[in-house]
Specification:
heterodimer, A: 114 residues, mainly beta, Immunoglobulin-like, six-stranded mixed beta sheet, globular, B: 114 residues, seven-stranded mixed beta sheet, 0% helix
Chain lengths: 114, 114
């Protein structure tokens, strides 16, 4: 039962263009969502988050959109840079035992071409 | 990965042997987590802890046990390693928040079971 799905295993984008990474979830109890970026041989690093009470959150070149009715979120990177090449994980979470417990997607490998 | 370290970074072990991975944090965070990352599966929760001596199972806990005798240390033990446990293991920490919590991940331990 995969509660969080990233259906595109990989994506290639030209430098300077927009990258759009998609994520779908099935658990309507999720009320907070995260995006992480992961470089090879490193741990995932937090990128951006969004609460279920919002439909958009922006941080510099990164914007996350949430469509609750469709149970879909997307990460937009504008403009894309070669340093953005990494694996991106989305995660949906809800409170369990006093803290947020997250389910992660399978990841999308983004390659930004110079 | 300021404040969170994993040891060892790499380990090769034989099938049937016990293995213990260590996660150490200096952030005094209450919550700690063990994930494994595998191609096609993303990050999957093995076990988590919400305080000293308080632990619970995640999605893929079979064959694993954990212990937390001090706030700063969270140990993951493979009781009898199998080849299916070859993976990259990540530890994460988080602090309680009213709305949303962000995990900070360690750099990972690459475990190979031969």
């Amino acid at each position: 039962d995969q509660q969080v799905k990233q259906n595109s295993p990989s994506l290639s984008v030209q430098e300077g263009r927009i990258s759009i990474l998609n994520c779908d979830y099935t658990n309507s109890m999720f009320d907070y969502f995260l995006w992480y970026k992961k470089y090879p041989a490193e741990g995932p690093t937090f990128l951006i988050s969004i609460s279920s009470i919002k439909d958009k959150n922006e941080d510099g070149r990164f914007t996350v959109f949430l469509n609750k009715s469709a149970k879909h979120l997307s990460l937009h990177i504008v403009p894309s840079q070669p340093g953005d090449s990494a694996v991106y994980f989305c995660a949906g979470g809800r409170v369990v035992s006093g803290t947020y417990k997250y389910i992660f997607g399978t990841g999308t490998r983004l390659k930004v071409l110079a | 990965d300021a404040g969170i370290t994993q040891s060892p970074r790499h380990k090769v072990t034989e099938t049937g042997t016990p293995v213990t991975l260590r996660c150490h944090q200096t952030e005094n965070h209450r919550y700690m987590y063990w994930y494994r990352q595998d191609p096609g599966h993303g990050l999957r929760l093995i076990h988590y802890s919400y305080g000293v001596k308080d632990t619970d199972k995640g999605e893929v806990s079979d064959g694993y046990s954990v212990s937390r005798s001090k706030t700063e240390d969270f140990l993951l033990t493979l009781e009898s390693a199998t080849s299916s446990q070859t993976s990259v293991y990540f530890c994460a920490i988080s602090s309680p928040r009213i709305r949303g919590a962000v995990y900070t991940f360690g750099s990972g331990t690459r475990l190979t079971v031969v």
